[in-house]
Design goal:
This protein is α/β, with parallel strands linked by helices. It has 7 helices and 17 strands. Helix 2 runs parallel beside helix 3. The two termini are 28 Å apart.
Length: 237
């Protein structure tokens, strides 16, 4: 599941982008995403945790230029895909200085938007294919992108890989995958759960929300888990 953010202060333009994303999802069931919208650059920057896949940035919002937001984002996140939404082509061209993936001109129209989004998704899939995990049971073998794994659950002698909306049953030990995925942004929050820190949304006293699901956080693992989340997000404890 992709994490998408929009910075746009004009309600009509923001709603149009939201509608275009929803329409694309209806046309392509494989396109699944969460969406967060902002109307001020400073708010987006204060809440950004290096966990977005795509940023749609309006060039001009009341408190700062979208290009300045992008420059600040790039200081902490080199991989997020930035797309400028603008009617000012000179700023769109400047966007390449922050390695913007593309720009979309206003007034927004669905066909060019869909074509650009399709190209973005192709680029993201290509990027995610860099590291894969081999999964094997008695009958089948397959490889999945580590980035697409939301969390892994251990139950008895079985492991359950939650990959998007799919659950893949697997043989093996959680400890082995914890070691394999340690450098890929995964952390143990419980004896029975290994989560992809990219999908962590909220941490509560005894649970963490990962990809929209509540997962327990055990007392012995809590301190270490919080430290790993903070390190992943570039925060100080």
């Amino acid at each position: 599941m992709l994490k998408i953010m929009i910075l746009e202060d004009a309600p009509a333009e923001r709603q149009r982008l939201e509608a275009f994303l929803q329409r694309y999802a209806e046309e392509d069931p494989a396109f699944r995403y969460t969406l967060t919208c902002y109307d001020r650059g400073i708010t987006l920057l204060s809440e950004y945790h290096k966990d977005a896949d795509i940023l749609f940035l309006d060039i001009r919002v009341p408190d700062m230029l979208g290009i300045d937001v992008a420059k600040s984002i790039r200081k902490k996140d080199e991989s997020v895909m930035i797309v400028f939404v603008t009617n000012l082509t000179q700023y769109a061209i400047e966007g390449y200085s922050v390695e913007a993936f593309d720009y979309i001109l206003k007034p927004l129209k669905y066909p060019p938007f869909a074509a650009k989004l399709k190209r973005m998704l192709k680029a993201l899939r290509s990027r995610e294919q860099g590291y894969t995990v081999n999964l094997r049971d008695k009958e089948n073998e397959r490889r999945v992108s580590a980035d697409s794994i939301v969390y892994i659950e251990s139950s008895g002698h079985d492991l359950f890989f939650h990959v998007g909306g799919e659950v893949i049953r697997q043989w093996g030990t959680l400890s082995a995958y914890e070691e394999e995925l340690r450098e890929r942004g995964f952390a143990r929050c419980h004896t029975s759960f290994l989560v992809n820190l990219k999908y962590v949304e909220t941490i509560r006293k005894n649970e963490v929300i990962v990809g929209g699901e509540a997962i327990p956080v055990s007392r012995p693992k809590r301190k270490s888990f919080l430290e790993q989340v903070a390190g992943y997000r570039g925060e100080k404890m």
